[in-house]
Specification:
By secondary structure, the protein is mainly α. It has 4 domains: 122 residues; 110 residues; 145 residues, Cytochrome c-like domain (Cytochrome Bc1 Complex, Chain D, domain 2); 159 residues, Cytochrome Bc1 Complex, Chain D, domain 2 (Orthogonal Bundle). The protein contains 20 helices and 4 strands.
């Protein structure tokens, strides 16, 4: 009888857990998102209650962390499907600007709350904190309403999950969204939880699912065991866990015959990892399909790039200021005018310029086509005329043949095609074959220990990667890589000087106080070849640049920079760390310059 009772009990338990498992599996991905949003809302309500009852900073801080962890569980969906609202839930604590309409919006969300409660929380911040929490609740409601009515298909789910892995690499583990508290590593663990759960909803019998679960659990355990922000080995974490997870996601997609999401984006949806050689599409920033890159356009553009007849006096070409051997810079502190006078700004590299949606230091042009005509017609640079250049080309049979090959649909060269051809040549200057790239693709001997330490510093303690985003290392924001940012860092007029640079940057074209001294965040790729540095060429060496940032930029040096976006507290890098940081940046040099 005892054995019979045991068997009955065992079968009952099996039936119970089987029913329970079936019940879980019957919920959809969308239903799970809504449940997680309700849990997030509950955490925010608890947060409001604690603040309203004047609880201690310790209790306030713990609830903040719980709330952020609840958000991280839903982040993959909110950021992907409702990015406009996500910006005001967990975006930077900086004004959101609409430059076309010359207006700005104050920031809201977790990063604003973080600054209100840490490192000190005083009762004087109570009203603002509760206000932020109520705004956050409203945003949750808006997100819930949106998810209740939209359809979420598997191909968009997979794309969202894959983008979230890229978000973890480029934003999560760098501390981008936890700049003060530096709680990024535990939050990364939470962000990974949903991956196998989501894939189980799509196909619980998939052979890949078991591997994905193991990888995810190992990655989470690594975060738990190594939760010190500054000591966290990001290089190991990416290469051993995040890249393999990313590959498994792509393999799962192929095995399940789930279609790739078609979209016009600089980041190709077909890639297996963020570090694939062909991960980025230079057509992501073109005006229309007519402007798409082709090798024939680049060949024509190269000829135009070196043609001095584009200038008024036939004595200067694009290559006069962008020397190929210097990664298309000129090695001067600032550019020289046609008459030999020093201009205000340093000549930036053209390598990887095509993977930004803003050109020039002040970001006054949005694409490479407008950039080329701006330079050609500038009286101090080339003082040319597009009408004159067009007329010359129409009389040149060699050019006509090249134009007909590059633009087969037109019978004779058109003015816009001149700009497009030059821009296409610039779009051909992205190699993605540095020692860093090789290492991230599995060549373990490509970097030495000091360089690996430098990368970990770049993406962690030194905070470089919170502005120079991996793997472009410029200001084009992941994981969509569709918007390029500026920063106000307080660059001095002279090295070791006591005056701030008088150049007002973006403010020249958009009269908003937040933009005084704002400049585009350039790429750090090929930086070993492109000295001197900053918009005014003030620093001759990378060591000087690192020292400037280590001291907190202009404000850290004592300059009056009220709108500085760069954190102005000292990084507290020691000499060994500064040296490692420089060593890493030198690994970003393309093969042709090594």
């Amino acid at each position: 009888m005892k054995l019979k009772h045991f068997i009955l009990l065992f079968l009952s338990l099996c039936l119970f857990f089987s029913c329970k498992e079936n019940k879980v599996s019957q919920t959809t991905i969308k239903q799970d998102i809504l449940v997680d949003l309700s849990k997030l809302n509950n955490e925010i309500e608890k947060f409001i209650n604690l603040a309203d009852h004047n609880k201690s900073q310790k209790e306030i801080l713990e609830q903040f962390k719980k709330s952020r962890l609840a958000y991280k569980k839903t982040e993959w969906a909110i950021e992907y499907f409702i990015p406009e609202t996500a910006r005001f839930m967990n975006g930077p604590a900086l004004d959101e600007m609409e430059l076309e309409e010359n207006r700005s919006f104050e920031p809201h969300g977790f990063q604003v709350m973080e600054e209100l409660i840490y490192p000190e929380y005083g009762i004087e911040n109570k009203e603002n904190l509760i206000r932020e929490l109520n705004i956050f609740k409203s945003n949750i409601k808006q997100v819930q309403s949106t998810f209740e009515v939209i359809t979420i298909s598997n191909n968009y789910v997979l794309d969202a999950v894959q983008q979230n892995v890229y978000r973890i690499i480029a934003l999560g583990i760098t501390g981008f969204d936890s700049p003060v508290l530096q709680s990024s590593i535990p939050e990364t663990s939470q962000s990974l939880i949903e991956i196998p759960v989501i894939f189980e909803k799509i196909n619980s019998n998939s052979k890949i699912l078991a591997d994905l679960k193991k990888l995810t659990l190992k990655a989470q355990k690594y975060c738990v065991d190594n939760n010190n922000f500054n000591a966290f080995n990001r290089v190991f974490f990416i290469t051993e866990y995040l890249n393999p997870i990313s590959k498994k996601i792509k393999f799962f997609q192929q095995q399940e015959n789930i279609k790739i999401v078609t979209k016009n984006s600089p980041l190709k949806p077909s890639i297996a990892t963020l570090f694939d050689k062909d991960a980025f599409d230079v057509n992501g920033f073109v005006l229309s399909k007519d402007y798409n890159f082709t090798a024939d356009k680049a060949t024509l553009g190269e000829k135009l790039f070196y043609d001095k007849s584009l200038s008024k006096n036939n004595d200067r070409s694009c290559a006069s200021c962008h020397h190929p051997e210097k990664a298309f810079t000129d090695g001067l502190k600032t550019n020289l005018s046609l008459t030999g006078i020093n201009l205000a700004r340093n000549t930036p590299t053209l390598t990887y310029a095509s993977l930004q949606n803003a050109q020039f230091w002040d970001m006054r042009q949005l694409d490479l086509e407008k950039q080329s005509i701006d330079v050609i017609q500038n009286k101090d640079e080339m003082h040319g005329s597009m009408e004159s250049i067009h007329a010359k080309i129409l009389l040149d049979q060699d050019y006509i043949k090249l134009f007909q090959k590059a633009f087969p649909k037109t019978t004779k060269p058109e003015a816009w095609q001149i700009q497009n051809a030059i821009a296409s040549y610039v779009r051909s200057l992205n190699s993605f074959d540095s020692r860093f790239d090789l290492y991230m693709r599995g060549e373990k001997n490509a970097l030495n220990n000091e360089e690996i330490e430098g990368m970990n510093l770049f993406m962690g303690k030194a905070k470089c990667a919170t502005c120079h985003f991996t793997p472009l290392f410029n200001g084009t924001v992941p994981p969509n890589y569709s918007k390029t940012e500026h920063e106000v860092i307080g660059t001095p007029a002279e090295a070791n000087g006591k005056k701030l640079s008088p150049d007002s940057g973006r403010y020249l074209y958009n009269k908003m106080p937040q933009l005084i001294g704002a400049f585009k965040t350039p790429t750090v790729r090929n930086i070993a070849i492109t000295a001197p540095y900053m918009h005014n060429g003030v620093f001759k060496t990378l060591e000087e640049v690192v020292d400037f940032y280590n001291k907190g930029g202009g404000k850290g040096l004592g300059y009056e920079v009220e709108n500085q976006t760069l954190p102005f507290d000292e990084l507290k890098l020691n000499k060994k760390e500064e040296k490692a940081l420089v060593a890493f940046m030198k690994t970003l040099t393309d093969k042709r310059y090594q």
